[in-house]
Each structure stands twice: as structure tokens, then as C-alpha cells.
Amino acid sequence: MTRDMTRRPTLDEIRQWPATVNVQRAAEALGVSRAHLYDAINQNRCPATVIFVGTRRRVVTDSLLALLEDSSRLSFEASKSPNGASTAVGPDGGSAERRPTSRGHW
């Protein structure tokens, strides 16, 4: 049985989002499951800024953009060879797509 994966939004699409988004939408942008992002939020390990509105959790879009733009930059820098030449990075952004926190995980 295969699971239908949601297409990840581009940075340009995310820039058009409202100031905050729900956890599902933020998880899609980060390329993780909603459950994984909820776990990270509940354990104070979420790499993006989360605000609580009553019982709801909202993720600040600017913090998602900063995280994803930084990850894109890190992917590009990690792809450079020692002589300074750049090599191609896959469409998933390579291994820098998920950034660890200061505790080594997120």
C-alpha cells in the first residue's frame, strides 16, 4: 500500500502564505509529518516559531521561511567542492533539509 505524499510548497509559494499557518501546512513546508511536527512542538524542539492561540498551535510563516532559506543556503554551501566549484544539489535540498537544534536533533 502506498501513501499519497503531499507536494512540498516552494519558497515563493510560502512567501504568499498568511502570517501564521496551522501545523499541517507547516509540516508540509518542512517535509515532515504532522505528527512529527506536533511531537517537536510538544517537546520544545520545533525549529520554527510556534504561538498558541487558545488550544490551537500556529506556526509563524516568517520563521519557516528563515529556516528553509537557511537550509537552502547550507545545502548549496555543503555542495561546493574543496576547490570552490559548485556541484548540483538534488531537488530535495540534500541532507541539510532537516537542521538539528543545539541539542543535536529536532
UniProtKB/TrEMBL annotation:
<dbReference type="Pfam" id="PF12728">
    <property type="entry name" value="HTH_17"/>
</dbReference>
<protein>
    <recommendedName>
        <fullName>Helix-turn-helix domain-containing protein</fullName>
    </recommendedName>
</protein>
<feature type="domain" description="Helix-turn-helix">
    <location>
        <begin position="22"/>
        <end position="70"/>
    </location>
</feature>
<feature type="region of interest" description="Disordered">
    <location>
        <begin position="75"/>
        <end position="106"/>
    </location>
</feature>
<dbReference type="InterPro" id="IPR041657">
    <property type="entry name" value="HTH_17"/>
</dbReference>
